[in-house]
Fold:
Amino acid sequence: MKRGYDMTDIQIHVATSHQSTCVSNTFIDCFMPDASGEFVKIYLYLLRVLSSGDRHFNPSAMADKFHYTENDIRRGLSYWEQMHLLQLEYNDANQLTGICLLEPGQDEHKDPAPTESSATIKMMLLPSDRQDKSAADLNVHQPKTEEKALQIPPDEPRHYSPRQIAAFKKQDDVAELLYISERYVGHPLNLTEVEKILFWAEELHFPVDMIEYLVECCVEKGHPNFHYMNKVALNWKESGISSLQEAKDSTNIHSQSYYAIMKAFGISGRNLTERETAFINKWTSSYGFSLDIIREACERTIRNTGKVNFEYADSILGSWSKKGIRQLDDIARLDEAFASAKQAKVASAPVARTKTNRFHNFEQRQYDDDYYEALEQQLLRK
Structure:
């Protein structure tokens, strides 16, 4: 019998007893529609950690889990604090030590002080003996409210009115920019794409030639998606890049890194994926490794796995970062220490003794070079 769908009345229920995370309807109705997907993931993950009972939270581990940068995590936390859904707590040294989730309210301008119910929703980042390290990793400082709005722009452009967009398009240089952008991406720009370009100009204060270079650069790298371009734009803003020349210099540095790592992995005939570029940015920015060290990790990955494996290379570089590796000599010393420890372990292992049984209960003969030479002469005389 063919099944149909009654779109007017569908029941949703659950057939499992697994633990779940509760999300406020107010958050879904009032806050989620205007937030970017990355920020929504960060907030939901905080709720997930809170509901698990283990309220220790590591920003670096969260960045690894979602393949974000720590700057992405910082922007997300700051965004939700501006929305009055959480409060970031600091110690006397102005280091982040805790996150207090607040009760979502429909009025985002309400007083963000914790209520009696929200005060119990407190999540410490790490045990007290590791709070300093976590704060240093996250590198979050508590600026004034006015400074936050200036330093941390929204992750996604807001919706502009038709009048604002029309005024924007009337500018001669902007009209040329939109035309060139359409030529690069190969299709007429839709409203969302125009809003992103307006966001880069009005919110991020990028000059027109810099925006044109942004679109050109991303398309040439095989990323014509405006969502990807917006991530690049936000990273430029985060890095203090505000001119065309600064953008070109930054791109050249990253292009050299990408090319060197692609060559080390033997990648050709394709562009790097967004996830692969995220790994490279992590190695060069978060870990601060030189290309020599990254190339060494790539070569070891190919040697050990026989294929391109960014996750395997990341595990090597992550281990080196924890051990304070800064140059190739450090890796050589680490290899020597590992080999010495392995040799010492083998030397200290007990020598296996041959078991004696009815099939092997005689003393074995010992043969030397003289015996084999005499045997050879005997065979030649026959």
